[in-house]
Amino acid sequence: MKVLVIAQYFPPDMGGASTRTFNVAKGLCEKGCDVTIVAAFPHYPHGKVPLRYRRKALMPERIMGIKVLRVWIPALPHDSIVNRVLLHMSFIVSSLFALPFVGEPNVIWAANPNLFCFFPALVYGFAKRKPIVRNVDDLWPEIFYEMGIVRSKLMRMLLDFLAKLSYIVPAAITPISAGYKRRIMEKYGVETEKVHVVEVGVNSVESLFSVYERKNKFVVMYSGVLGFGYDFETVLKAAGFLSKYDDIVFLIRGIGELAPKLERLIEELDLRNVVLDTNFLPKKKLSALLQSADAFLLPMSSARFVDEGLPTKVFEYQAYGKPIICCSEGEPARYIWLTRSGLVVERSNPHALAQAVLKLYKDRESVWKLGWNGWRHVSENLTSRHIGERMYNVFVSLSK
Q: What is the pLDDT of residues 151-187, one digit of tens each?
């Protein structure tokens, strides 16, 4: 089977969208599929396009056996809504540069970014007369309404129309969580047979898991986007409650629009047990840093649509064999509870979060046991091989 993937973000780009696409592509290759990716020049999150891509409109390459057709994108960092929209709109156009070079696929998977990638996929689908499968990593445009970015009724009507079109036209839809599936069916009237939940998963677990070792510090870590989907104020308040424990450290690392605010709050609250790290780290250094954590944080915001998804970091956290402290009342909470891989506390409750940290701090056996449960679950169910096989089955069903 020949699969064409439309994805603005693909490794070495960081983030969940890139990880999702790579895991699926790798898994499909392991199933014997011929996979071609139409992706933007590497640019996320820093906006620094490598020199070898500059002054080019298109550049073919291979990554672990996967054919990748890289297309132009402006060298802009993802540090504002305006920049992100400009990048997405640019990719809609530049992704079509690869149309003469993709061959004849059997199916087209619109991977990322959400909603925007549907439009070039539609062009490819029309040109190649092949079915489109629409991926859903986040609920767009709902998240924009929840965050207050879009308030105009007219704009909402337009975005809802485009979103419905992107769900009705494709032959199948592959959201990353059951919560997203319910929302798509309820709001847009999509039939259940058309929607197939396929989680993000992980590339590998064997090389990531390490035996727990007691250290001088108990490190509670958040790693990922410093964005509005996460409630860092609750984390900082919880850290304040635990400031008397000299050997408990909160490490918040990543980049995003909330970084300046977090830096200011940490200084105002005089939180000496909180470290904010906004440095960009290569993959090996990032892996070593994540290995140093004793527990990971998943502080979901109170936004309804945010809490219906399953962030990529959930599976990555589990792959490191460490417990997760999850502030959620939605899909992440359900998943952590079902896999017995961490502690679940009420959102926006710093006292409950502080108590969860203390519980793990005092019970190192639970740290190991919960971490092991998560590691075992992803290794047995959610590696790229498992994810690729499930996605392959979706694609095969369209040709029957």
A: 888 999 999 999 999 999 999 999 999 999 999 999 9
CA-based radius of gyration for the chain? 21
Q: What is the pTM of this model?
A: 0.88
Domain at 218-381: CATH architecture:
3-Layer(aba) Sandwich (3.40)
Q: What confidence category does residue 400 fall into, taking pLDDT thresholds of 50, 70 and 90?
A: low
Q: Answer whether 398's CB lies under 8 Å from 348's CB.
A: no
Sign of CA dihedral 113, 119, 124, 126: positive
Cα(11)–Cα(19) distance, rounded to whole angstroms?
7
Q: CATH 3.40.50.2000 in the chain, residues?
A: 2-201+383-398, 218-381
- Write down the H helix ranges in 252-363: 259-268, 283-291, 312-319, 331-339, 350-362
Considering the four listed CATH numbers 1.20.272.10, 3.40.50.2000, 3.30.70.1350, 2.40.50.140, the one that applies to the domain covering 2-201+383-398 is 3.40.50.2000
| 3-class SS letters over 197-251 | CCCCCECCCCCCCCCCCCCCCEEEEEECCCCCCECHHHHHHHHHHCCCCCCEEEE
Q: With 70 as the cut, is the pLDDT of residue 377 above it?
A: yes
CA distances to 48, 144, 156, 254 from 149, rounded to whole Å, are: 26, 5, 11, 22
Whole-angstrom CA distances from 161 to 131, 151, 155, 156 are: 21, 16, 10, 8
Can you tell me the mean pLDDT for 72-96?
Answer: 92
